[in-house]
Amino acid sequence: MQRLVILGGGESGVGTAILGKQKGYDVFVSDYGKIKDNYKEVLANNGIQWEEETHTENKILNADIVMKSPGIPDKAPIVKKLLEKKIPVISEIEFAAPFTKAITIGITGSNGKTTTTMLTYHLLKSAGLNVGLAGNIGKSFAQQVAEEQYDYYVLELSSFQLDGIVNYKPHIAIVTNISPDHLDRYEYKYENYIASKFRITMNQTQGDFLIYDADDEAIAEWFKNNKTKAQLIPFSLTKTFEKGAFIKEKKMEVNINDDEFIMETEYIALEGKHNMKNAMAATSVAKLLQIRKATIRESLSSFQGVEHRLEKVLKIQNVQYINDSKATNVNATYFALDSMNTPTVWIVGGVDKGNDYSELMSLVNEKVKAIICLGVDNKKIIDAFGNIVDVMIEVDSMNDAVKMAQRLTEKGDAVLLSPACASFDLFENYEDRGKQFKQAVQNL
């Protein structure tokens, strides 16, 4: 009996444990932190052994295979020891993929991947396909492989999940865009992070497809030095293609298999330039899977967007409050500020992952009337924008941030929470941060 050790008792860890047990592995789950009660219950119900707040080496280093949760870095001591012993350390996606015959659509990128994943899922589901949604989102892929019988999966894949693949290949891969993020996990080398994202296509063959943003510099740079066997489907806001997706005269055109899909952009529910890209990527998948044009059109016009991503919360005294808590890096905030068309009070800050704020300068200059810094250490933000905006305020709670924002606005303004940073200094995660923002706005 092969021994499967799982590091991390969260969603992906527990899902992998269930699948491993079902497939006849001797399974052990080890978490250096605490395991949530609901997960403990699932493990107990499935007769799976676990430990928390420690890694017992003699129970781990005897593994035949190890599934490491995406949050655990390669430089963690236990992972280093496993690698020294040449024990394979893989991701949930790599472990689960061989156990399903389903076609997978893998979506990665620094920004836009959740929206693109949700929109692609919405398109496929609306067309009546038997489709699951997993990866970085919702219920774990491994658990769904154990318990469901889907024909397709739409998977949101982070660079950390892709670091742990060996043989996995999606039939259709999407790279939404690449900008510096999580560099602390990649020796502060941008090229390492880019290479990590492109692992999504490393096992693809001529029968597979890679959909990508043809306007993105980092992606273009990768193509100069690397090749993929997959058929390429580019999308762009500025270029046009014989095969690919583009915007021309306020229409989105997607041309695949010599069959053109055209839709006026004003009827697409998602707003903003970056969302046009997300729509082009998702529509390309729908076209490859030969979904009817009427279904695509209907789905694009009915899609509601993703919570915590440019989510309109409330309008109070003609001031629009917008929750973009999911913007955990500068590039995401760039999209948010770019889509603002009224004077904006911007709430920003948190745990900085090596941010370079210079690319936001022109947008801040043009659109932002006041900045509220919501973080434990705001020095970098103050240094960057102190001379550009007239009003700069530091707060250390979401309630204070929202109350202060209300004082600084006049009719016709907007308040935008788009932190450009991780949330762990004051919040559990970006969802917690977004929920607190919405609650504070509702309390005004």
Automatic annotation (TrEMBL):
A Pfam family that the UniProt record links to this protein: Mur_ligase_M
Top-rank EC class of the record's enzyme: ligase
Catalysed reactions, semicolon-separated: UDP-N-acetyl-alpha-D-muramoyl-L-alanine + D-glutamate + ATP = UDP-N-acetyl-alpha-D-muramoyl-L-alanyl-D-glutamate + ADP + phosphate + H(+)
Metabolic or biological pathway, per its Swiss-Prot or TrEMBL entry: Cell wall biogenesis; peptidoglycan biosynthesis
Molecular function terms, GO-annotated: ATP binding; UDP-N-acetylmuramoylalanine-D-glutamate ligase activity
BP GO terms, sorted: cell division; cell wall organization; peptidoglycan biosynthetic process; regulation of cell shape
Domain Mur ligase C-terminal: 308-421
Compartments where located: Cytoplasm
Top-level lineage group: Bacteria
E.C. number(s) listed in UniProt: 6.3.2.9
Keywords: ATP-binding, Cell cycle, Cell division, Cell shape, Cell wall biogenesis/degradation, Cytoplasm, Ligase, Nucleotide-binding, Peptidoglycan synthesis
Main location, first listed in the record: cytoplasm
Any one GO CC term of the record: cytoplasm
Record: residues binding ATP: 109-115
Positions of the Mur ligase central domain: 107-285
InterPro entries assigned to the protein according to its UniProt record, in alphabetical order: Mur-like_cat_sf, Mur_ligase_C, Mur_ligase_C_dom_sf, Mur_ligase_cen, MurD
NCBIfam families named in the record: murD
Function, in words: Cell wall formation. Catalyzes the addition of glutamate to the nucleotide precursor UDP-N-acetylmuramoyl-L-alanine (UMA).
UniProt record similarity statement: Belongs to the MurCDEF family.
Protein name in UniProt: UDP-N-acetylmuramoylalanine--D-glutamate ligase
Organism: Flavobacterium psychrotolerans
